[in-house]
Structure formats: C-alpha cells, structure tokens
Fold this protein.
Amino acid sequence: MPQLVILTLSLLPWIPAFLCGVTTMEEFSVLEGRSLTVPCHYEPQYASYVKYWCRGRMREFCTSLARTDDPRSVDPAVDKVSILDDPVHQVFTVTMNDLKVDDSGWYMCGMEIGGVWSADVVEYTNIKVNHGMLVVNNRLSGEEGSSVKAECEYSVRFRESEKKWCRSGDWSSCLVTGSDGSYEDTSVAISDDRTGAFTVTLKKLQMRDAGWYWCSAGQQQISVQVLVTPRPTTTTVSVTSLATPSQSVAHLPPPKPISKESWSSHSHILESLLVCSSLMLLVGLAILARKMWKLHRQDPVLRQVKEMKARLSGYSGDVGDLPDATVVFLNRDSQDVHTKCNEFVSIQ
C-alpha cells in the first residue's frame, strides 16, 4: 500500500501534461540558411503562464533558447531565436533564423507551471535542416497553350551556383542561367532571386512538353513532372427551333397599304384571268353543242332498232325458222341488229 501511494504521488506532476497540454507538429523540415516558424497551441487556462522554447529531449536537460518573460527574445528579425505569445488565439510562435545543418534535432514547446508537485506542460518536435534542394510542387499540370511554373528552392551554400533546367535523360537539353541569374527563350524562362529559390516558367505548353524534368543547383538535383492536357475542341451546333403559332403570328410583317400602282397591276391580272375563263367557257359550250347534235342525228336509227327488237320479241317461233331473215349490223359500238323478214330496209 505505501508503494502505491508513492507511485501515485510521483505521477501526479505529469497529469496536467497528459490531460490538457500544448500541441504542435511532430516534425519540421527546412533547407539550410532558411528561417522556420513553429506554432505551439495551448489551452485557455495557460494564457497567463510563461512560455519557453528549448532544445533537448528531456526537460531536465533542455537548453533554453527563448522565453516570453525575456525581453531579448521578442524580435524575429534580429534574434537567432525569438518567441511571441498570442493569448487571444492561445498560441505562441517560435522563429529560428539562418538555420544550419547542426541545428537539426529535438526541440520543446513548454509552459512553466512551477511548484514542487507540478511539472511543466510540454510538447516535443523534431527539426531537420537539410542542405540541397526542394521543389514547392513536383507535379505540374497545364492545358495546351497555357503556362506553368516550377519553384525550385536551394540551401544557402548554392546561392552562387549556376541553376539548370533539364529534361530527364537528355543532358543536351539543359538550360543554364547566365551571370545575371536568368535565362529566357520562346518556351522557357528561368529567374533566380539569389536568396534561395529560382523559378522556371514553361510558356505556351505543347503536348510534346509533357514528361519528367529536373531543376539543379550546383550538384543538387530534384525531379519535376509536367503534365499537359489537350486543348478542348469547340464544335458549332446549329439548333433549329420550330416556331409556335403565336410566335409565327407575332413575327408576321404588317400588311402593306394598297397604292394606285399595285391596284393597276392587280387589275391587269384580273382582266387576264377573266378573258381566259371566258375562252374556256366558250370551248366547253362548243363541245357540248357538238355532242348534242350527234345524239340528235342518231335518234331515228335508234327508234328503228327499238321497233325491230319489239317485233322480234313478239315472234313465238325459233329464230332459226326464219329462212329469209337478214341480219344487218348498224355499227360496231352498239352491237344492235336490224332484222328484215322477206323485205329489204334501206338505211339512209
């Protein structure tokens, strides 16, 4: 039992650190010669506490680099390490300038609690300072005809080195900056700020520009992929819309007033139509009169045929018993016959 009490008392100072502490990113990576700002977020109840930044993995052996109660650690532009607290947003920031490779290691965001039974609230982060290069975006994509930019950053030791932009696998394609730190042609422009970054602009992209490239500073290289998408083709589609009756009526031109000239031209047309109609009527009447005259000439013959038919129908014997019968065909169309028994009938 006494051992349990001692263990509980020994863990008591660390409880605040686990329950409500300070948070930051687990790891930061930066190029040599650059600056780095680390945000450390804390809970509202720690707004009035002293904050600090120290180097080391253990609090007892941590080397203090900046404290909020030290007025010499508040100017990021001058100090190697500075610290600034913002109680309104519950965050304090630490800025480290002109980093070297030797500055790599473990660091600690801490809040000083004080007291024998209370441990400080801390959070650890690992900072890696590299010499060499990095690219802001190693995968560029643009539409055919557009432009894209690659931002290549380098460490301080390569400020005076020549900068290159090359197509991967083709050393003869390398474009090198001049003494002023720039290069430009119709398709590529390179600009070096001589402080830690140079920009490569690919202009008027074409499909053949797609592929892998690398930017170089001194002996350091880093790869960049360029993707080119085809320019969209535009097709013209003609759409014919059928007008509704209301639209058709709405778009009809207004009637024109009748002038003397238009009336005279119309009267000539009417006269021509009247003459043609009269001629057609006369032709029709002439044809009708001719047919009536023909029918009138045929009436006596038709009457004689009807009389012969009546006489034949009244004869009771066989037609074959008429030895002296004569059959006369009047015409081919009517197929009527005229029979004369023992007498001759002349047809005029």
About this structure: Residues 133-229 form a domain with the Immunoglobulin-like fold (CATH 2.60.40.10). The CA atoms of residues 86 and 92 lie 6 Å apart. Helices lie at 2-11, 15-19, 245-250, 260-314. The mean pLDDT is 78.
